[in-house]
Amino acid sequence: MLNVHEKEEIEAEARHYPDRRAVSIEALKVIQKHRGWVSDESLRDLAAYLGMSVEDLDAVATFYNLIFRRPVGRHVIFLCTSVSCWIMGCDGVQAEIKSLLGVGLGETTADGRFTLLPIPCLGTCDHAPALLVDGDLHRDIAPGGVGKILEKYP
To answer: For 20-43, what is the mean pLDDT?
Structure first.
């Protein structure tokens, strides 16, 4: 069931759209903000609330790479894997994360603190390699610099 706060936030967003289905991405973000991810149950409840089929809403959720359809850590690290970041050493950044946290792409640390996910581009190619952690963009990551970045996220 959607709670009253989720419904209020969804309705506030829905006022900006002529069709309730058009608020689907924003509504998914609301669910994720409150619950950390979008479960199958949440997806079904939201689809019914918006007057959409579960399949149509799931297509939106799985297309949009910032909607999590399975549990993630308290902090989500997006590692840019674009050509620019690859040329500038994102493989080294990934290896450093693996060394520090013991996780590879798509994995969550045992303590639930971090999830590491690839992202095709962060739009900062002139400052590669780059990471996005909880919405904070980290650019020009030097070898050995990942630990200092991750310290900011308890």
So the answer is: 96
